[in-house]
Each structure stands twice: as C-alpha cells, then as structure tokens.
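Friendly challenge for the regulars: who can give me the structure tokens for this chain first? No prize, just bragging rights.
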Amino acid sequence: MNLIVTGKVKTGKTTWCTKYSQWLLQRKFTVGGILCPEARSNDIRIGYNIVDVQTNQSVPFARVSSEADSPGESVGNYLISYEGLEFANRAIEKALENRCDMVFIDEVGHLELAGKGTIESVRTAYRKAPNTTIVVRKSLLGRFFNQKSGMLISMSLANGLAIIPEDSKGVKAGDKVRVMMLD
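First reply, four minutes later:
Bragging rights claimed.
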C-alpha cells in the first residue's frame, strides 16, 4: 500500500504519521523512514528537525534563515541543512535495507519537486518498499502529481490518499480522517 497524507500547513500531518507509526509498532510491524516535526524556541517555530523513525535520532533539518547555523539549500524563508538532507537520505535507505514494513517520508516539498533533496531516496522507496506513507502539503499536491521528475510514474503506484480536513486544528490519536482509495 502506498498512502499519501495531505493537508494544509499545521493541520497535523506529521502528528498523524507519528501516531500511525506508533500504532504499527504496537502491532509488531517494522517502521522506518523520516518524520519532520517542528523545532521551537521560546514557543516560536524556528524550523523543523528530521527524525529517523527506526532510531528516533533527530538532527536539525530546516531553519528560518536567521536561525540557520550550517550550510544548506535556501527554500523560501528556510535554509535546508545539507547535513539534515544526508541524514534523511540515510534514514530512508536504512529503512529499505532493513526491509521495514512501512517507510514514512515526511515530506516531499519544494526541494524534491525541483528534483533535489531526498527525491532519489523517495523514488527508490516507492519502487522497493512494500508500503509507504508520504506527506505532501496540500498546496503542493497538484505540482506533485503533475511534475515531470519521474515521481508521476511512481505515484501511479499509490493506492490511498489520507486527507486532513482544511479546518482541522490538528489530528490526535483516535481522530478519524478521510481516506480516498485510488484503486
């Protein structure tokens, strides 16, 4: 099964994936890949960290430009750390090597849609993993399906789309979300 989780910014996509990965672990499935929770300082979002789902190890991934302290790719107001990208790619590759039952990829964003970032690892995961859950922000979903970097072919393998309601203030454990099956 290949599942796409989509919704607006701050609607609980990462939270939903975190809860889903915990649910799978409780049922003895193996999980891997990456999740990208917010990084906050003094209650202000300063960016995002990247978390290896298998090890729970975390490194800085994206920081607002004023908070960035390592080299990276500039995307909007953020600087995406090269170290964070390497960490993310390794985590996805490790999940594939370990033959995880579910590989999480949070998220495919502007960098990947430009053919950079984790796009090659994402493509490999879609080809090799038995199950994937990938996060794509709602504002990028059209570009995600229409872009010509090879993902469109991979996306034809997706058979489910989890939709976080637009008016959602977040998703909690046990909340229901709409899932549109694509086959």
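The chain has one domain: 2-37+48-57+86-181. The two ends are 11 Å apart (CA to CA). Your move, everyone else.
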